[in-house]
Amino acid sequence: MRPPYPPPPERSAELRRRFAEEARSERPDLSALCLLVGAAADGELDEAGLDAAQVELDRLAGLLPFRPGGPRAWAVALRELLGERMGFHGTPGDYQRLESSLLHEVLVRRRGLPILLSVVWMEVARRAGAPVYGVALPGHFVVGFGPDEGQVLADPFDGGRVLTGADAELLVVGATGAGVDPSMLRPADPLDVVLRILNNVRAWAAARPERSDVALWAVELSLLLPSHPARLRYERAQLLVQRGEFVGGALELEAYAEVVSAVDEGAAERVRGEALAARAMLN
Q: Where do the coiled-coil regions begin and end (predicted)?
């Protein structure tokens, strides 16, 4: 299967406008933002496809039992429906596919990265009235049900397996070498979830220099989020230069140098030197 390619410039600009508007709304809609990420990645995903993905989330939610009980009962109900009956899960090979980070593809393939499978769990459960939220464990995103004192964790990548405290500890130790800190178990903000998804896309593209188009749209969407690392501007500038847009890249580098100069003049000078080198490539 060929990797998806972004839509034409006019469609891309419209999608970015909608993404920025949703990200800055009072209550950002996680599924809408993730689907707009998918549309920015895949020029074949049109408005009908966006609507169909939302309808599928609604359909799955309608298959859940009515208010099954407390947090553990919700976690088990989601596992039985999505993991066992519908076959949503992940494998190591899914990390090698861009589609594993695109919600509309995950809904079709029923495979994806932990964070995208968690989005499916959250959005289906939320529609059904469950007390659900994302939990951004280091290196492995999971979902949580219920309040702190009765929190139940489930791992959608493993088909929704309900985790014991020891299971969560092993996941964190494997990623960090240290134990679970209570702060790791707090509900993840939807915009932080989206930024983490875009970080995964950027990591996928970084390993594939021929897909700088993917890296560029992922960086540009990240920059539209209300809160993002300032260094993303530098990354965007480097991508523009890499793609032969030397003037645009130089302008971005110079703008970033102005920001950096307030805290590190030496670093700012190095970035200005990169801007000069980019302009020199026009000769």
A: none
